[in-house]
Backbone:
């Protein structure tokens, strides 16, 4: 990947959530699963720690601490990281607010809209009970302890989540009450932060702050209040930002998701203030974290929540590879890179992490999250529960699956851009246009494939087949050419078009233009950078998992997946399935997409010995 070049203006703009929504497919199924979970959580339980801190609770579950029926207890309260004794209690409500607001903005969901209004009203009452400013579940004493250098885990991290949820409710739904609550609450944090000299506060910033920097930028943009510009300056994290700008690798073996939100905050600070130093932080971070570091085949780059050394991944495979929070936040950072620069490789990065991170770490049956995605041999995903865990990744899960549609399309000066091949309908009112993306993956589509017969394809198509329909005013449509194609794309349209590097540029002349595309693929091998004889198998953007209970070696040509894998179990009613089996091996192994693995033991990487 290339580093971020200087750009005087944004290369692309994301659509507001009300202008784009999913229409079908795997991502829509996962969104629906996530929505059902959001709606299943009661207002009382979501608010439990905020109400407790404000002295407003009437809950009685604490009278029965020894009950052993977990299912029954789960109806009474939230536990795990939301236990009232947890140092991060209250963090999940902010994630829920953010996710529910995006769901309502996108779909108009009346149930979640009513819940949101009630929760925001309850937070306003908590703020009033606390004296008009404090609205958090975190006790003020935690900040005092942090300032004194005593153990408190990460109070600013938890505080940020409430800020984030309120700001997102305002941003996505125009709720002025939510913005007012956040604005009043900021006064308490500002007074606390200004109570330290510069050197001491820089030490405080070494303790995880979450997205506080991003909130100050958001509130500066929303209110114009200059106190937030002062807070941006105060929260400049010199120990991280200065060496990054100097080109040093400060990330190796550093906790990853402590730093990614800070850099997302730097990105918002640049977008709001235009100060170049913030952009330099983002540029340097992307270069260090991605360009000069590489990734696992899944797109992840962490193990045990810390950054791996540059291109040194072989020794970092274990039960705690690829933390979900870091995947979600790095997708957000890649979106920033693309919007600023138009770098198509940032979209490749997003695609890999969507399929092999966000999908792979959500249980397709229950909707719950896997905190980590193990990449050791014979691994098994460990799923969270609806009410007993509430890990940090539980929170980013519910946000992530409300935001897939926005990653699919962008607006650019004079053009409409298709970035991800996800079924969506997107409206561009400024350009009086609409785009609809459909995946053509069943027998009803009979294309020019050489294997096509009277009833459809005889075998599963060896291409991603997409139909993009554009209606409205004339414009250029740019369609990303995936990095994983095995041959030139096949394009079928009456409009004029040309290949422009990694884009197909189609001239939509008004009315309706239909573009059918086929992006050919083969199963390819992707080695670990520092152990090239150990490979993963990848079809298109999708990593395949072999169902084995330990690390298994294969025999074949490590450069040619066809010497080791063959199609298997390819058809089910009108669907083509992504299934493979090993060939020429001492042990038969079945392979399926990593994001379809639930409780099976699996391996992603396989040492390969020549035949």
Residues:
């Amino acid at each position: 990947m290339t580093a971020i070049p200087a750009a005087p203006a944004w290369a692309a703009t994301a659509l507001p959530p009300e202008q784009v929504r999913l229409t079908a497919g795997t991502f829509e199924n996962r969104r629906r699963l996530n929505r059902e979970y959001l709606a299943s959580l009661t207002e009382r339980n979501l608010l439990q720690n905020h109400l407790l801190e404000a002295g407003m609770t009437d809950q009685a579950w604490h009278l029965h601490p020894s009950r052993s029926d977990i299912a029954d207890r789960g109806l009474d309260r939230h536990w795990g990281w939301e236990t009232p004794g947890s140092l991060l209690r209250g963090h999940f409500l902010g994630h829920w607010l953010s996710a529910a607001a995006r769901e309502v903005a996108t779909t108009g969901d009346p149930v979640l809209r009513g819940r949101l209004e009630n929760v925001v009203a309850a937070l306003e009452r908590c703020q009033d009970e606390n004296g008009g400013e404090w609205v958090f579940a975190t006790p003020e004493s935690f900040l005092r302890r942090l300032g004194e250098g005593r153990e408190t885990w990460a109070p600013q991290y938890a505080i940020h989540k409430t800020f984030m949820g309120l700001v997102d409710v305002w941003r996505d739904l125009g709720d002025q009450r939510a913005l007012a609550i956040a604005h009043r609450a900021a006064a308490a944090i500002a007074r606390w932060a200004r109570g330290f000299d510069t050197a001491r506060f820089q030490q405080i910033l070494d303790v995880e702050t979450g997205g506080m920097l991003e909130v100050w930028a958001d509130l500066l943009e929303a209110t114009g209040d200059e106190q937030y510009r002062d807070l941006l300056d105060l929260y400049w994290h010199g120990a991280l930002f200065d060496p990054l700008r100097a080109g040093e690798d400060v990330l190796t073996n550093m906790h990853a998701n402590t730093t990614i939100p800070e850099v997302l905050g730097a990105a918002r600070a640049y977008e709001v203030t235009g100060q170049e130093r913030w952009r330099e932080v983002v540029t340097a971070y992307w270069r260090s974290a991605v360009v000069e570091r590489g990734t696992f085949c899944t797109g992840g780059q962490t193990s045990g929540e810390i950054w791996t050394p540059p291109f040194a991944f072989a020794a970092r495979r274990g039960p705690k590879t690829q933390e979900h929070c870091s995947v979600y936040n790095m997708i957000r950072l890649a979106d920033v890179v693309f919007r600023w620069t138009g770098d198509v490789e940032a979209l490749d990065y997003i695609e890999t992490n969507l399929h092999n991170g966000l999908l792979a770490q959500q249980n397709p049956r229950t909707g719950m999250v896997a905190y980590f995605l193990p990449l050791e041999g014979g691994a098994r995903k460990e799923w969270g529960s609806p009410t007993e865990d509430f890990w940090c990744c539980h929170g980013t899960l519910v946000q992530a699956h409300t935001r897939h549609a926005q990653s699919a399309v962008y607006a650019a000066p004079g053009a409409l851009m298709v970035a991800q091949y996800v079924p969506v309908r997107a409206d561009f009112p400024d350009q009086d246009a609409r785009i609809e993306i459909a995946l053509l993956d069943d027998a009803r589509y009979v294309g020019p494939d050489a294997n096509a017969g009277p009833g459809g394809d005889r075998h599963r198509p060896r291409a991603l087949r997409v139909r993009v329909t554009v209606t409205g005013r004339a414009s250029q449509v740019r369609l990303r050419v995936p990095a994983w194609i095995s041959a030139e794309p096949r394009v079928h349209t009456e409009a004029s078009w040309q290949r422009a590097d990694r884009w197909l540029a189609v001239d939509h002349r008004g009315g309706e233009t239909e573009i059918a595309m086929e992006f050919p693929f083969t199963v390819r091998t992707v080695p670990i950078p520092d152990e090239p004889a150990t490979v993963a198998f990848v079809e298109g953007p999708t990593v395949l998992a072999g169902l084995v209970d330990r690390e298994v070696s294969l025999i074949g040509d490590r450069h040619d997946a066809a010497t080791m894998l063959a199609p298997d179990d390819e058809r089910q009613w009108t669907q083509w399935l992504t299934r493979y089996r090993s060939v020429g091996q001492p042990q038969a192994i079945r392979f399926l997409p990593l994001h379809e693995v639930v409780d099976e033991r699996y391996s992603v990487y396989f040492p390969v010995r020549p035949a």
Remarks:
- Residues 110-129 form the longest helix (20 residues).
- Residues 523-609 form one domain.
- The chain has a mean pLDDT of 94.
